[in-house]
Amino acid sequence: METQPAPRAPEEPESTETHAAAQKHDLFWVFAGEQGLRSGWAATLFVALFYLITFVLDTVAVTLDPALASNTVSARSMLVGELLPVLAIAAAGLFVSRVQERRLLDYNLRGRAPGMRFAAGAAAGFAALTVLVGVEALGGWLRFGPETLHGAAAAKYAAIWAVDFLLVGLFEEGSFRCVLLATLERGMTFAWALATVAGACLVVSLRPHAQGTGGVYLFAVLGAIPCLLAARRASGGFWQAAWATSTIFGAYHTSNHGEMWIGIFTASAIGWVFCVSVRVTGSAWWAIGCHAAWDWAETYFYGTANSGFAAPGHLFTSTAHGNVLLSGGAAGPEGSVLAVPATALLLGLALLVYGRRRGAMPTAAG
Predict the structure, then answer these.
(1) Could you tell me which of 363, 189, 181 has the C-alpha nearest to residue 273?
(2) Quick count: other Cβ atoms within 10 Å of Cβ 304?
(3) Torsion of CA 56, 59, 62, 65, to 10 degrees
(4) Taking Cα atoms as reference points, which of 288, 289, 301, 293 lies closest to residue 158?
(5) Which residues is 309 bridged to in the sheet?
(6) Count of beta carbons in the 10 Å neighbourhood of residue 209
(7) Is the pTM for the entire model greater than 0.70?
């Protein structure tokens, strides 16, 4: 005699709480993964906080000192103008690090002997800029006049501009090679990097007063090659993030006065070199020192234009002559095609000193 199966109990309808929890989980997946807040959202949060905090600090500074609202460029106004963004990225980075359950130093600020890394980077930056200026002078594309400062005045402005350009290095490297690079490499694929680079190119193409935009497009195309080679490697995320942040770094400089395509391309290329230095040295301190010393030598020591900016209070006086592609014109030496081999020199110095200790550039094999 067959045994009839027991009747199944009717399924209870899914509770409202369970359904809401499932929806919450799905929404949570969009913003967070196994490593916490997704890297794209974390980078977006950092940028948004940076602009918000900068606006607040600028408003407070101008309220306390209305003279800062004028367009007069001086060492003092530049000091305030660079200090506030540094404070803003520190505050924004600290907040994002807490959201990601990390520490601020985790954003490429750890590593061995940071002081030595900084000093070595400063020496490399000064040396590379000196070679660039020397070649331009030998070719007649840059002519020097007599010293304009002596004694105490020379020492005073040397110190002032050293502090100013240290802040520039901290701000730009702290933004692009510290927080953004360290954040984006966690989740950056080639597809996301390509979308980011394409977005940066679109933005500069739509900006009415952007200068040298061709340099952004050229680097975006050339940067895709090593990133394609690195796409399947374990370190691929780092190189995709390096390509994206370096392209954005060049796009960021298109707002400078007097820029040409070669100067913007060089800015992106130097950004890539600084990413390589982070990879081989283990931190951004070499890049910070190199960036600060390059700008200090260009602006104060040799008295050339720096991305269209001619500083008051410089040691030597120099003027550009001849072919603009060789002299750099109003953009300064970094706007010259000769800046490309100078950038390659920086890359060579970083790899020569540190490259044997850690793998640097991606290769097709592996």
Answers:
(1) 181
(2) 30
(3) -60
(4) 301
(5) 306
(6) 7
(7) yes
